[in-house]
Specification:
The structure is a single chain. A hairpin with a 2-residue loop joins strand 12 and strand 13. Helix 2 packs antiparallel against helix 3. The chain is of the alpha+beta class. The strands form 6 sheets. Strands 10-11-15-14 form a 4-stranded mixed beta sheet. It has a 3-stranded mixed beta sheet with strand order 1-9-8. A two-stranded antiparallel sheet has the order 2-7. The chain is elongated, with a radius of gyration of 39 Å. Helix content is 29%, strand content 26%. It folds into 4 domains: 94 residues, Helix Hairpins, CATH 1.10.287; 88 residues, Urease metallochaperone UreE, N-terminal domain (HSP40/DNAj peptide-binding domain, Sandwich), CATH 2.60.260; 73 residues, Sandwich (HSP40/DNAj peptide-binding domain), CATH 2.60.260.20; 50 residues, no CATH class.
C-alpha cells in the first residue's frame, strides 16, 4: 500500500493554518481535481479522494488534534467514516453549496427577476432629454390565491418528493449534486386544486404603462434603472428592477461621438474660392460660419458649445463642420465657357493659384527624372566629414 501523504501537504497549507484557510484551500483543490472537470482521469479522481480525506480530518478539531499528535495512526479508521451524507464528509454540502450556488438545500422567498427594455429615441431627444411612456409585460402575484396557486379553500401540501425543499440530492458515484425537484418544480409544495385565475402558477400576466424620464445627454448603451418595476418575486420577496437600455437612432445630418457632433457640409467651389459666410445647421437652430477664401475640401471648422451636454457633468461638446467641395454638374455651354476662360487665365500660374497641385506635380517630375537623387548626391558631396 502506498504511503499516505501529509494532510497539510495535500491541501498545501501550513500546520498553523486557520479553519478558514483550510476551508479555502479545500475548495480550491476540490474544484481543481473534481471528476466532472477531469473526465476519464483516474489520477485526478484519486487526488480528489485524497483532498476530501485530508479535509475531513483537518476540518474537525478533535481529529486534527489527534492527527497532529500521532499522525495518520491517530485518525486511521475515522477519516472518511461517520459524518453525514457524502462519504462521511459532513461539511461537504456546505462547501459545494457555496461553490455551485446552492448554499445547502434551504432557501427563502426568491426576489423577482430583473427585466430589460430597449428604448429607441431620436438624437434630439437624447441631447435635450425627454419623457417617454413605455408599455411592458408584467408578472404579478395572483390576488385570488395570494401566490399559493391553490383555489380558495383548497389545501397546499408539502411535496413528498423533496420534503418542501424544492431540491433533491442526486448521488453520482462519490459525488452528490442538488437538482430542482421534478415533482414540484422547485416550489416545495403540491396543490390539490389549482387556482382558476392563475391556473396554479401563483402569478398572473398582464401589461402596464410606465413613464420614463430620459436625462439630457444620454447615449446608446446607457441604462436607466427603475427600481421595483421588474417581475414580482415569490410571496414575501421584493420585485426585481427594470433596466431601460437606450438606443439612439441614426440622424440624417449629424453623427455623434461622445459629446461631439459632426456634420458634413457640401459647398460650391466658388464659395470656398472666394470665401464668405454660410448658414449651417445645429441642434439649437441655424448658425453662421465664416469660410475663408481658398478653403480646401475636407477642412474642418469648430463651433464651440454646439455639441452635446454630458449626462454626467456640465461640460458641453462642440460641433465639427467638415467642408466638402462639390464639383458642379450639368453645366450649360455658357458656364463651360466661363470655366475654360478661368482655366486659361490661370495657365502657367499653378504655383500661385494651386500650390498643393503644383507641389505634387513637381515631386512627380522629380521622381521620374531622378532630380531628387542628384540633389541629395550633390548635397552629400558638400557635407563636411566628421572630425
Amino acid at each position: 500500500m502506498a504511503t499516505k501523504r501529509c494532510y497539510y501537504e495535500v491541501l498545501q497549507v501550513s500546520k498553523t493554518a486557520s479553519e478558514a484557510e483550510i476551508k479555502k484551500a479545500y475548495r480550491k483543490m476540490a474544484m481543481k481535481f473534481h471528476p466532472d472537470r477531469n473526465p476519464d482521469n483516474p489520477e485526478a479522481e484519486e487526488r480528489f479522494k485524497e483532498v476530501n480525506e485530508a479535509y475531513d480530518v483537518l476540518s474537525d478539531p478533535q481529529k486534527r488534534s489527534a492527527y497532529d499528535q500521532f499522525g495518520h495512526a491517530g485518525v486511521d479508521g475515522s477519516a472518511g467514516a461517520g459524518g453525514g451524507g457524502f462519504g462521511g464528509f459532513g461539511d461537504f454540502s456546505d462547501i459545494f453549496g457555496d461553490i455551485f450556488g446552492g448554499g445547502g438545500f434551504h432557501r427563502g422567498p426568491q426576489p423577482g427577476n430583473d427585466l430589460q427594455y430597449e428604448l429607441s429615441i431620436t438624437l434630439e431627444e437624447a441631447v435635450k432629454g425627454t419623457t417617454v411612456e413605455i408599455r411592458i409585460p408584467t408578472k404579478e402575484v395572483c390576488e385570488a390565491c395570494q401566490g399559493t396557486g391553490a383555489e380558495s379553500g383548497s389545501a397546499v401540501e408539502t411535496c413528498p418528493t423533496c420534503g418542501g425543499q424544492g431540491q433533491v440530492r442526486i448521488q453520482q458515484g462519490f459525488f452528490a449534486v442538488a437538482q430542482t425537484c421534478p415533482t414540484c418544480h422547485g416550489t416545495g409544495k403540491q396543490i390539490k386544486q389549482k387556482c382558476k385565475k392563475c391556473y396554479g402558477e401563483g402569478y398572473v400576466h398582464d401589461h402596464k404603462t410606465l413613464s420614463v424620464n430620459i436625462p439630457a445627454g444620454v447615449d446608446t448603451g446607457d441604462r436607466i434603472r427603475l427600481a421595483g418595476e421588474g417581475e414580482a418575486g415569490e410571496p414575501g420577496a421584493p420585485h426585481g428592477d427594470l433596466y431601460v437600455r437606450i438606443r439612439v437612432k441614426p440622424h440624417e445630418i449629424f453623427q455623434r461621438d461622445g459629446n461631439t457632433l459632426y456634420c458634413e457640409l457640401p459647398i460650391s467651389f466658388t464659395k470656398v474660392a472666394l470665401g464668405g459666410t454660410i448658414e449651417v445647421p445645429t441642434l439649437d437652430g441655424r448658425a453662421e460660419l465664416k469660410i475663408p477664401a481658398g478653403t480646401q475640401s475636407g477642412q474642418r471648422f469648430k463651433l464651440a458649445g454646439k455639441g452635446v451636454k454630458s449626462v454626467r457633468s456640465s461640460r458641453v461638446g462642440d460641433l465639427i463642420v467638415q467642408v466638402n467641395v462639390e464639383t458642379p454638374v450639368k453645366l450649360t455651354s455658357e458656364q463651360k465657357a466661363l470655366l475654360e476662360q478661368l482655366e486659361e487665365s490661370m495657365e502657367g500660374k499653378s504655383h500661385k493659384h494651386s500650390p498643393q497641385s503644383h507641389s505634387f506635380f513637381d515631386k512627380v517630375k522629380a521622381f521620374f527624372t531622378g532630380e531628387d537623387e542628384k540633389k541629395e548626391d550633390k548635397k552629400s558631396d558638400n557635407d563636411e566629414p566628421w572630425q
